[in-house]
Write a structure and sequence with these properties.
HTH-type_TetR-like_transc_reg, DNA-binding transcription factor activity, mainly alpha, 11 helices, Tetracycline Repressor, domain 2, Tet_transcr_reg_TetR-rel_C_sf, 224 residues, 0% strand, transcription cis-regulatory region binding, DNA-binding
Length: 224
């Protein structure tokens, strides 16, 4: 009697109807580690852009990326590890963006044309990758001190790269007496300001509008 009663209780506890079995979580197909890593970083960047750094919890990231939370921990070990990975991705994107912009500037004919060409490449890249761009260009609530410090260091590295190109352009134009260091600050800060307009008001400001207006202003200042 006891055995029969126990068996009934046990079966009640484990038996599931076909409908209930179909409601169980469908796990995402197995993918290479690097693919999962990029997927999780992209999801984390979207959450940070929308909710701030405090809104990027491992639970939210797993749900956004459609993976088990254990997968995120297996790859990044901790929430801090994932934060570092997101910041590293943002720095890599920024570094590549600046390199392509400066390459375009070097190939242009004249300082004004160089600024126009470089700015165009820079802003087009920002428009293509708005979530990751927000992490380094817009103030995001709850950013850890380590993140803020890394962003400050990154901005200074960008300015130094701009400075090297500015010096080359000024020497080419026979204007080496101009203050290249000050110009490097102006170029970086103005490019970042225009990028923020693009991110905050994408329906109003496009890369084409911003670069064309900047070029027109440069021509007016030169001949005015």
């Amino acid at each position: 009697m006891y055995h029969r009663e126990y068996s009934v209780r046990y079966n009640r506890g484990v038996t599931r109807s076909p409908a209930s079995r179909t409601q169980r979580r469908r796990y995402a197909p197995r993918r290479p580690r690097e693919v999962r890593s990029a997927q999780i970083i992209d999801a984390a960047a979207r959450l940070i852009a929308e909710h701030g750094w405090r809104g990027m919890t491992m639970e939210r990231v797993a749900a956004e990326a459609d993976v088990a939370k254990s997968v995120s921990y297996a790859i990044f070990e901790s929430q801090a590890g994932l934060q570092r990975a997101v910041l590293l991705r943002a720095q890599e994107v920024t570094g590549d963006r600046v390199a392509r912009a400066l390459a375009a500037a070097r190939e242009a004919d004249g300082i004004a044309a160089a600024f126009h060409a470089g700015l165009g490449v820079y802003l087009e890249s920002v428009a293509r990758e708005p979530e990751i761009s927000r992490l380094v260009l817009l103030p995001i609530e709850g950013a850890p001190d380590s993140v803020r410090e890394a962003i400050r260091d990154g901005r200074e590295q960008v300015r130094r790269r701009i400075l090297a190109v500015v010096r080359t352009l000024l020497e080419r134009e026979g204007a080496a007496e101009l203050d290249a260091e000050l110009i490097s600050h102006l170029v970086r800060d103005n490019a970042e300001h225009l990028a923020r307009l693009l991110l905050e008001q994408p329906g109003t400001f496009t890369p084409r509008r911003l670069t064309d207006a900047t070029a027109a202003l440069a021509r007016f200042a030169r001949h005015g």
